[in-house]
Amino acid sequence: MTKHEILKQYFGHDDFRTGQEELIDRILAGQDVLGIMPTGGGKSMCYQVPGMLMDGVTLVISPLISLMKDQVMALKNAGVGAAYVNSTLTLEQLRLVYRRIREGAYKIIYAAPERLLAEGFVSVMQEVKISLLAVDEAHCISQWGQDFRPSYLRITEFLGVLPYRPVVAAYTATATEFVRDDIVRILGLRDPFTVITGFDRPNLSFDVQKPKNKTASLLTFLRSRYEKSGIVYCATRSNVEKLYEELTKHGISAAKYHAGMEDSERASHQEDFSYDRKTVMVATNAFGMGIDKSNISYVVHYNMPKSVEAYYQEAGRAGRDGSKAECVLYFSAGDVTTAKYLIENGSENEELSPEERQKVMEADMARLDAMIGYCKTTACLRGYILDYFGQPHEESCGNCTNCLSEYVDLDITTEAQMILSCIKRVHAHLGYSIGTALIVNVLRGGKVRRVLDMGLDKVKTYGVMVKSDPMQIRAYIDHLEKEGYLRVTQEYQTLVLTDRADEVLFRGETVTMPVKLTPAVPEPPKKAGRPVKGKTSAALSAVSGDAVPEDGLVTALKAVRLRLAEEENVPRYMVFSNAALEDMAAKRPHSIEEFLNVSGVGASKAAKYGAIFLEAIAEYEQKEE
Ligand code: ADP
Ligand code: MG
Ligand code: ZN
Quick one: which H or E segment has residue 368? Predict the structure, then answer.
């Protein structure tokens, strides 16, 4: 049989995907290989097909016990002799499997790495002819990888006890150079033929947002995509529970998934989602392994994940069918705290020694920093990800928020002076420095206990930015850090000025910051909302995504705006901003002249929309009487 016949006959596929054929050919020619392909790229085929063509058996090392079982079942269904050896087998079953291996019943054998040096296993393996050793999820061998498994180190030792060395093939979706080098070095791959297939997924758009109210923003987002299917990832189980409640309460068709649920409940939620009975899956990262639902058209991260690897893997579950899909990340400062907490208290891997644990934690923190960088960059988001994976790319992709947004350089010298001066004065007052959250509080004249206890309300810059949004102030602080006017200390994350700060404080240096002009990836045209006629005002404010009940007139005006926006096929803010509608409701104009007094109304908009809004106001007032 040829490899094409195997592909067609056993797996039902007509063509090989990028990279598969080359890897298979090299293995068949007796060369070691390293295959780096994104999740879903089809790595299994790259050892299963050659395994079936070579004489002897192929031994596959995999860390994922549940997937192992699925793969073996799939192979058996396809008519391939396959078995697995891991801790889920009883002694009885294990003996049977060993006997059948000796009898030559299997072509492909999966084993968990913990098994490798077990006596029984080794003696069986020394008796049969292993032609190919395939190491799946090979990044597990690297301490720099996101899931370091010390038991993977046994692979090298295992190779040493075999009567002769088989061809060794390693596969992973993690492509950072560090990890790649570790795999080659530790596994001892000999002159490996390496394939790195493209990590770019052009059909995915990328967007990072910093919404004030994540839930409200999410509701708006989901409502305008109610006919589509998507995943919302949260950092913790309790977040999943809360958000699931909230979405359900607002009439969103949601399912949930996390490791703390009963098996049966979790399975039924997963099925509801798989079969499109529910459209939104709210989940922790436990939801993912082995999902191949292809029509997922958005993945929203309600919290920032811990690494770019994790983000790209989770976001990459969108658009598997190749159609356009959206990847949106909601970022907040609290996410950084949560992620740090999870890293510091996370790694429960009891295989690790304290030194290893320390090393893993440091690597995790470095990965977190790269993830935070993604959330804050003003450059192309796709480019940022591809850089991370070491893949060359165009400077601008044209399909992410940052590429689609226009940036203007805003002069923030005054704000910078206030912030830097505040940090300086607080330090002078206390004799030590404090963190971002407290500085923001002082600048906004906050009354939290710690601020008052420390007497920071007596500091001269207390309350100078009382009108500014805390997220905005944080953005300024981030920018000042990036530009080198201040830095965050490693140990306690406190803010300290650098010498450069004096340039701004005393020598008139101006500070500018790139600010996004247009919002996000534009909302999909049309379908941007449901029909509005005849809806109650609660339903209407729900459509507009507002969490608090609003003035009835504002609601009515928003309905008019939505209708106009749909007619013209433009985003709603292009008709009038919320602020303009609020001012309109407050001023209640009755003539075009009065209409022109509304903030945000210029001559052309007055001419275009004036009559329609004036009529809506008159109508509303009539009903009031
Ligand atoms: P990975 O391990 O790289 O994440 P898998 O090996 O699990 O990916 O394969 C992902 C999916 O792609 C599977 O559903 C598999 O059947 C499919 N697939 C693999 N190779 C091909 C191919 N040549 N043609 C069509 N589908 C393929
Ligand atoms: Mg795989
Ligand atoms: Zn871009």
Answer: helix 354-376
Determine which helix (DSSP H) or strand (DSSP E) holds 260, and give its type and residue range: none
Q: Distance of CA 253 to CAs 256, 269, 460, 494, 532, Å?
A: 11, 11, 52, 43, 20
Residue 366 CB partners (closer than 8 Å, separation 6+): none
Residue 43 alpha carbon, nearest atom of ligand 1 = 3
Query: Looking at ligand 1, which residue's alpha carbon is closest to its atom 26?
Result: 13
| Per-residue DSSP letter, 153 | G
* Residue owning the nearest CA to atom 15 of ligand 1: 42
Of the listed ligands, the closest to the CA of 206 is 3
What pLDDT, in 10s, does the model give residues 201-224?
889 999 999 998 999 999 999 998
448-454 contact pairs (CB < 8 A, 24+): 454/429, 454/430
Q: Which numbered ligand comes closest to the C-alpha of 64?
A: 2
Ligand nearest to the CA of 42: 1
Give tens-digit pLDDT for 512-529.
988 776 544 444 444 333
Neighbours of 284 (CB within 10 A): 20
Average pLDDT over residues 565-593: 82
10-26 per-position pLDDT tens digit: 887 888 988 999 999 99
Q: Find the 172 Cα to ligand 2 centroid distance in Å.
A: 8
DSSP classification of residue 236: S
The pair of structure tokens assigned to 515 is 């600010």
Nearest CA to ligand 1 atom 23: 16
545 Cα distance to chain centroid: 23
Per-residue tokens: 437: 């959250």
Output the residue whose Cα is nearest ligand 1's atom 21. Answer: 42
31 and 191 in contact (C-beta within 8 Å)?
yes
Please give the DSSP secondary-structure letter assigned to residue 512: E
Tokens encoding 25: 């050919």
User: Rounded to whole angstroms, what are the CA distances from 307 to 140, 266, 371, 489?
Assistant: 16, 26, 5, 22
Residues 283/284/289/292 CA torsion (nearest 10 deg) = 30
Torsion angles phi and psi, residue 281, rounded to 5: -105, 120
- The pairing of strands 407-411 and 325-330 is unpaired
- For residue 41, the CA-to-ligand 1 centroid distance in Å is 6
For ligand 1, what atom is nearest to the CA of residue 20?
Answer: 23
8 A C-beta contact, residue 280 and residue 252? yes
User: Closest-lying ligand to the alpha carbon of 327?
Assistant: 3
54/52 Cα distance (integer angstroms) = 6
Distance from Cα 461 to the centre of ligand 2, integer Å = 56
- Tens of pLDDT, residue by residue over 390-446, are 888 888 999 999 998 877 788 899 999 999 999 999 999 999 999 999 999 999 999
Residues having CB within 6 Å of any atom of ligand 1:
13, 15-17, 20, 37, 39-45, 292
pLDDT tens by residue, 264-276: 999 999 988 988 8
- 268 alpha carbon – ligand 1 mean position (Å): 26
Helices 470-482 and 413-430: crossing angle in degrees, nearest 10, is: 90
Task: Choose one of 5, 9, 11 to mutate for the ligand 1 pocket test, by most ligand atoms within 8 angstroms of C-beta.
Answer: 11
Q: Is-contact 210 471, C-beta < 8 A?
A: yes
Please name the residue whose Cα sits nearest to atom 20 of ligand 1.
Answer: 42
